[in-house]
Specification:
By secondary structure, the chain is an alpha+beta fold. The protein contains three helices and two strands, in the order αααββ. It is 31% helix and 12% strand. A two-stranded antiparallel ribbon has the order 1-2. Strand 1 and strand 2 form a beta hairpin.
Amino acid sequence: MPWDDSEFAGFSRQQPWLPIGAEHRKANVTSLREDEKSLLHVYRKLISLRKSRSALILGSLELLRSDQPGLLAFRRWLGE
């Protein structure tokens, strides 16, 4: 993951041994931190949610039947 939009993506001040794609100018940790709608923020919120709910860590999982194509439905619970 590129760290910033600098020439070598924040890895080094010299040319790294692996190539760096041009897209690192837009998709990097620094720019994703600033964008509240970025995938980085979504993952952070999901990790926080998982840590705050015991059922998501220790609970049971039940896959639910769905008639909608492409929809994955499930239920998580812990205890009652």
